[in-house]
Predict the structure.
Amino acid sequence: MNRDTRELEAHIQALLAEPAPQAPPLAQALSELWQQYQDLLERMERITRVSDAYQSMARQRELSLAERFDKQLRQLEKVARISDRYQKMMRELNLALKEAATHDPLTALVNRRPLLDRLRAEMERSDSRGHAFCVAMLDIDSFKPINDSYGHDVGDSVLVETSRVMESEVREYDLCGRWGGEEFLIILPETSLAEAEAIIHRVRAGIAALRIRVGADALSVTISAGLAQYRTGERYSELLNRADAALLQAKRAGRDRQQSAG
Ligand SMILES: Nc1nc2c(ncn2[C@@H]2O[C@H](COP(=O)(O)OP(=O)(O)OP(=O)(O)O)[C@@H](O)[C@H]2O)c(=O)[nH]1
């Protein structure tokens, strides 16, 4: 039965070529050929099925790889978004911390730290270039009675309004800060004592003109100030002590005035 197909075909051709073909041998050969074609067909169908299954498996694999890749990409994007938000939050937190460390929360003026940094910088600049520069210590007069009569909140408003005027009356390159309580320090770079006296006079006049409304009343305050010009080589504490001593003199002389250190 298992004759080679070519051999079988040749045999059939030979049988057909005979003038009177013998029916039984031809039928036998044709049946064998038919069986071989059937086997071949079945094998080919099997191969096709296997190939289809393999292709479908490969497609599935590609699909699941693409899906996994997409999922990981989405997860990465999510992580990147969270990290961006976290970094933004940290930046904002840092700014808030820096603001809190360098500014007075009530008046928004700088506090002692930046004032001292600037003072040291101006002292160095003055030592190396020989510029004159001055500081002024200012203190609201009789502030305690304001707190006692009108309450702490009104006292706070007085501090806020006073600092606002102070800032608006000094020059752009002067630095005005809250030294503590109702005391303020103004640093006046590249300024002679005579120039500083005129500026502080203007600041005090601005504050004296201020009217702070408390119900039906209009509150006004005055300022005493002590000024000192930097002496080459002195320590910042000496400079501040001289300004403070001048302020004390102004207070003792009756307040609402300014005094320059000799
Ligand atoms: N409302 C308020 N009061 C403050 C603040 N810081 C300090 N004070 C008050 O400021 C007052 C300062 O009083 P004193 O040092 O006796 O000075 P003063 O009454 O202004 O008298 P002179 O300075 O001598 O003119 C105190 O009552 C403090 O409680 C603040 O942030 N807000």
About this structure: The mean pLDDT is 92. The beta strands are 134-140, 175-180, 183-188, 212-214, 217-219, 223-229, 258-260. The pocket of guanosine-5'-triphosphate is lined by residues 106, 139-144, 147, 152, 155-156, 159, 181-182, 251, 255 (CB under 6 Å). Helices lie at 5-17, 23-102, 112-129, 143-150, 152-169, 193-208, 236-252.
